[in-house]
């Protein structure tokens, strides 16, 4: 069975909790990604920041992206997957939490990110179709 570490994108770039949303947006642009893990000074995962978060929670509310930190947008505990978890667990977690990206954790260390596209490339079409349908409902 396919495991998370086999399909993840390894070594994700983190935005630090103390960095500004402007810094995070620049990192996203430089890396060509729409989401970044938010890591604390201890390099532990604190949450995920998406381009949508920046638009809805900062720009649309008239906040200054140079004054808001990534840590301010980290809400609750991030939904994660273990590096050795199987593909069915990845799909179930994505569907249950309606997330398109999952940080991959090995112990306490962030080791990768699995996106919806990673799943689509790695799994058979019927399973991918089920995941897409689950993520599309009420989105």
TrEMBL record:
Name listed for the protein in its UniProt record: CBS domain-containing protein
Entry keyword set: CBS domain
Organism: Kibdelosporangium aridum
SUPFAM superfamilies in alphabetical order: CBS-domain pair
Record domain CBS: where: 8-65, 73-131
UniProt-listed PROSITE patterns: CBS
Highest taxon, organism lineage: Bacteria
């Amino acid at each position: 069975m396919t495991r998370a570490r086999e399909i993840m994108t390894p070594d994700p770039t983190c935005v630090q909790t103390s960095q500004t949303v402007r810094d995070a947006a620049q990192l996203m642009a430089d890396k060509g990604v729409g989401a970044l893990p938010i890591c604390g000074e201890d390099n532990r995962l604190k949450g995920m920041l998406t381009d949508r978060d920046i638009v809805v929670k900062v720009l649309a509310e008239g906040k200054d992206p140079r004054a808001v930190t990534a840590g301010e947008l980290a809400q609750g505990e991030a939904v994660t997957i273990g590096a050795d978890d199987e593909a069915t667990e990845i799909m179930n977690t994505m569907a249950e939490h309606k997330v398109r990206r999952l940080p991959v954790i090995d112990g306490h260390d962030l080791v990768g990110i699995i996106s919806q596209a990673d799943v689509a490339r790695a799994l058979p079409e019927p399973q991918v179709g089920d995941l897409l349908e689950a993520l599309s409902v009420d989105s």
